[in-house]
Prior knowledge:
alpha+beta; Beta-Lactamase; Alpha-Beta Plaits; five-stranded mixed sheet; binds guanosine-5'-triphosphate
Amino acid sequence: MDDFDINKERLELALEAAGLDLWENNLVTGEVTRKVSKIFAELGYGEHESGAYMDELFKLIHPDDIPVIRCAVESHVAGDSAQYRCEFRIRAKDGRWVWFANYGKIMDRHLETSGQRFIGVTFNIDDRKRREAELSAANRKLVRQNALLEKMNLMLQSLATTDPLTGIANRRQIMEVGVSEVQRALRLAHPLSLLVADIDLFKQVNDTWGHPTGDRVICAVADACLRSVRSDVDIVGRIGGEEFALILPETDGTNAQGLAERLRATVAALPISAAENAVLSVTLSIGVATLSPTCTSFRDLLIQADRALYGAKDSGRNCVHLLPA
Length: 325
Ligand SMILES: Nc1nc2c(ncn2[C@@H]2O[C@H](COP(=O)(O)OP(=O)(O)OP(=O)(O)O)[C@@H](O)[C@H]2O)c(=O)[nH]1
């Protein structure tokens, strides 16, 4: 055995160990001067079926991948790429598409000639492609699940902070916002007031018209509260059955009392439809509290506004009370 045969043997062994199938084409005649053999055997084809010319090979390649191969070959032939590399699918004898990769080079290209011996190797990358596809499917699923989680979080947050009957802030949200607004007002030495409004004799509404009408009254009053305040500054919430809180930043006692009076008058004049085309109206008693040297926390404000509210109820209802500082 001479050196050439020994080297050939070594090369064949290395190719086999690496799972590489060597090919060689003549770019001038289009002839396949060394056919890939292992991959065709692997795909279930017999010796005579594994194309002697490129056109025959292309018949087995996935139609979507042919332009990719042509583009990679043309780029290398034109000298735009140092190597030819591409990935494509070949149809197995049983109809499956199997992924392969090609890596090749024109070996006899020199400055003066464009070369014609195009040599390369083909190797199976089906497992890798399958794992990539599984991974991207899993990623897409994760993205969908994340979006769903974010949506559910938003819903949960809204449920935790909103009163389900009226859609305005619930007691928990009012307590949280109240504390932070008072801290802000104290830090900036700005005024802040709180109104606590309670529907008068609401039990009678329920007893006379029924609970569903009572609910409608609560919604109508919540709506009137919302319409009475500055939508981007003040915060309106339902803090009890028929009790509402209105947090009024940048508002002193006098202005808060004026707003409370307008709200009281609005609600008193509000026609609310009850059962059987009847129309009813309700009134509000409102307690007003404002930050002062003796009222320096949201808790203090709530206590003061509640006391003022009891005063309003004691004075015959349908009125506004502000405790003297
Ligand atoms: N329809 C309805 N009624 C409620 C709801 N929450 C509380 N109530 C009712 O509100 C009524 C409150 O009655 P009271 O606390 O006695 O007060 P009031 O009748 O308004 O009398 P004053 O506050 O003294 O003017 C009760 O009958 C509660 O059942 C609600 O979500 N829907």
